[in-house]
Amino acid sequence: MLTKDSLPLMIGEIDYANAWPLFVGLDQRLDASELGLCSRIPAELNRKLREGELQASAVSSFAYGLNSKEYLLLPELCVGSEGRVNSVMLFLKQPIERVRPQRIAVTTASATSVNLLKILMKLYYDLDAEYIPAEPVLDQMLEDADGALIIGDPAIHASWRSEELHIIDLGELWHRWTGLGMTFAVVAVHKEAAAAFPREIHDLHQAMLATKRHNLADLTTLMDKACDELGGERAYWLDYFTCLQYDFGQKLREGLALYFRYATQLGLLDHEVQLAFYEDNSAE
């Protein structure tokens, strides 16, 4: 049970460039005595939030679906796209129209993209493949598989050196099929934390909104950080951050709801999922 002795609340930060607009500079807007940051890959954050090590976190959308009865979504915050996402990619040895992959190595870093791949393979391509969990090292993944799904910064680096491979951007394919956006990550808060610490969760939400607005108003800082830490050209990173969406708008919410329906249809989830949003009651 959360009490005042639980402070500071711990908040999970996705350790990929695609989440930087939500987090770069966030620490400067938080009271460290109330809210602390923990930076990890999505799979680690999913586990930590589920097990109560974090009280709020950016997590894989699928992780929200698994635990939707315990979580609330912070409005206007997500990582998604309406089209190319540029960091959720299926690398294939042969074009899928020519050779239907039988074995696909899949990242262990996030559940959303793996299950999106399963949905697209089954319902769009009518293809049943074997999915093999693997660390995100492209050459090793392809040693014994026809394709490899990689996400985040490793996917970006792999795309820069994969001229001989055929790449399917899952965000682009989802949009072409459904006409909707795809939400890859959300920001979720434990219902218990929202009830026990309304002011602190209010402060977190407002700080994340302000951080997002600041970073997206001028992408210079993010582009410079990306070039310094990950390589590549400024033009690439300008396109990258511009393609992504962070506001959790209507098409992204509708796309996520459809994703959950398909996941339930295919037995990837054992229950229906409703999107439940945090409501700010701090004034009360």
List keywords for this structure.
284 residues; alpha/beta; D-Maltodextrin-Binding Protein, domain 2; 2 domains; six-stranded mixed β-sheet; five-stranded mixed β-sheet; 12 helices; globular
Based on CA atoms alone, the radius of gyration comes out at 19 Å
Outline, from the CA principal axes?
globular
> Helix fraction?
40-55%
Order of helices and strands: EHEHEHEEEHEHEHEHEHHHHEH
Structure write-up:
With 284 residues, the chain is an alpha/beta fold. The chain has two domains: 4-81 and 182-265, D-Maltodextrin-Binding Protein, domain 2, CATH 3.40.190.10; 88-178, D-Maltodextrin-Binding Protein, domain 2 (3-Layer(aba) Sandwich). The protein contains twelve helices and eleven strands. Strands 2-1-3-10-4-11 form a six-stranded mixed sheet. α4 crosses α7 (170-178). The longest helix has 20 residues, at 198-217. The protein is globular and about 60 Å long. The two termini are 21 Å apart.
